[in-house]
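Write out the 3D structure for:
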Amino acid sequence: MTKVADLFEKHKLVRRIALLWAMSLITYATHAMFADISEITAPAVSAYVAVTGLLTAVIGLYQWQRHADDK
């Protein structure tokens, strides 16, 4: 059980998984968005902007947790 706790506390697994999830989602959305350029509409662009905005939220969470760990 201590190995699992080390992954979450010592190695910060949750932060890294959140970053990987956001990067993967943005990569998928970008590929889907530009696979057929003729299908790009205003609602699709709005959804794409929302997905790419997730990265700023995840990075903010990452930085906040790092700052809390440093204290």
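The two ends are 26 Å apart (CA to CA).
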